[in-house]
Amino acid sequence: MRLHEKNKKHSVPLRDPHQDMLVGIRELAPEIKARAAEMEAARRIPPDLVERLRSIGLFRMFVPRSHGGLELDFPAGLEVIKALTQLDGSIGWISIVGGVGSLFAAAAHPELYRRIYQDGPDVAICGSSQPGGTAERVADGYRVKGRWPFASSCTHADWIGGFCIVTENGKPVAGPQGKPQVRVVVLPARDWDIEDTWHAAGLKGTGSHHITLRETLVPETHVFDVEAPPRMSGPLYQALREWLPLVHGTFSVGLAEGTVEDLLALAHTGRQQLYAAVPMRESETFQYELGRISANLRAAQAFHEVQIASHWRRALAGTLRDEDLMIEGARSAVWLATTCVGIADACFALAGSSAVYDSSPLQRRLRDLHVGAQHAHAQQRQYVDVGKLALRRSAEDAV
């Protein structure tokens, strides 16, 4: 079995889950950094590292305590994700999947949820939110088939989900506002095929391959609407979409922090670039650019901290499910992605020719941030909705 004793072994509650996780990450940090090239070459996280992450509680941090999970406050979980992202972009990305996967599962039918966590809370769940499949209604459930891209973490997942357009008699079923109805189908990982397609510019270690499902009869309990009213109580589980921009912001900020740390480490080696009169750290040009970069990073950190605090207050008050709040989160995610890409670009340029080698972490950080910024939640087209919201609020204030 894929979960066997490891879930039972690690299901003993931690004394201080959040702090114990951060301690575990610090202990794991040297190994993660040393194995970055290995992860890129394999295009996945090595299985033994996945198990180390499982053992420190990554896959259970947002699982409810009623099912043996840690049920961390969302800001605490984001701190864990950021700590991992500072070490390596691919590790940070799969930590997002590991956390968000359990939040997606919280919307599942109770029977499916019990099955997912029947052997313990340390379950790796992944999937693709692009509606790459169809779910045809039949008497016994749904007949599902399709092909989905960007299934990050599929190489080590225990369960996999894919978003589908619901059809009946071969035609899409209308949902809200006349748009096609979309549902997520979740099945054990063994039921899916993985296509080896992840040859990408960055985030190479995430194993974000295509996944396919041949025509499969799926019981109704394995198909659900992630936008439906929450099935579980507690601030973590009352909404999902509103959380997603925040995890992308965490990725951007964490990776930018790691990039600046790598640049400072290079400067402290005493490196002196060709034709330069003094070492990097003594150059006023370097100091000026570093000061500008530091200011941009602090602005990004502060903006992200404010957005997290605002969302968590709304979650505690039971008012998180809100379209305007979703747009506000998108605004922060897009701005943070753009700003942090700029930070990585500037650090790469300051490092000089040494940064072009595969051995330099700066070139990897640069690539990972650019690829992360291509995600739908970080794309600048989101600013359209942000602008509409600003216009609407201005008109309302004028009345």
UniProtKB/TrEMBL annotation:
Entry-linked Pfam families: Acyl-CoA_dh_2, Acyl-CoA_dh_N
Keyword annotations of the record: Oxidoreductase
Oxidoreductase in keyword set: yes
Keyword Oxidoreductase set for record: yes
Residue span(s) of domain Acyl-CoA dehydrogenase/oxidase N-terminal: 29-97
Cross-referenced PANTHER family: ACD11 DEHYDROGENASE (PTHR42707:SF2), ACYL-COA DEHYDROGENASE (PTHR42707)
Stated name of the protein: Alkylation response protein AidB-like acyl-CoA dehydrogenase
Organism: Bradyrhizobium japonicum
